[in-house]
Amino acid sequence: MKIEIEVVGKGNAIAELDDRNPSTAQKIYEGINLEGDANIWLEEVYFQIPLDLEYENPSSTSKKGDISYWPPGSAFCIFYGESQPASDVNHIGRVTENLELFYKVENGDRVILKIL
Questions:
Q1: Could you give all domains of the chain from N- to C-terminal order, each with its CATH number?
Q2: What CA–CA distances, in Å, run from 90 to 27, 67, 74?
């Protein structure tokens, strides 16, 4: 399952969903065409999405390029650097193309998720 992550006016990245948290990944994929306003925390872009999902296989660490869902904030997260989650997340995939895009994202930028 591949998705496109568009940062309006700045560019697009490609991500592939994986099986680390298959139920979470499937629900996000089925609810795609989600969008929100970017928030920046260290080297992470995140935004709230209208899905209320529980922890599946939570992780307290991340790797550069991970995309994740953060249950406490109903947020879609993109870890583009070396920072770690503030609290446990459900990893759902990885950015496979244009990870460097997220270094240009600013608070309030519009982010749109689409199925490829």
A1: 2-115 (2.40.100.20)
A2: 12, 9, 11
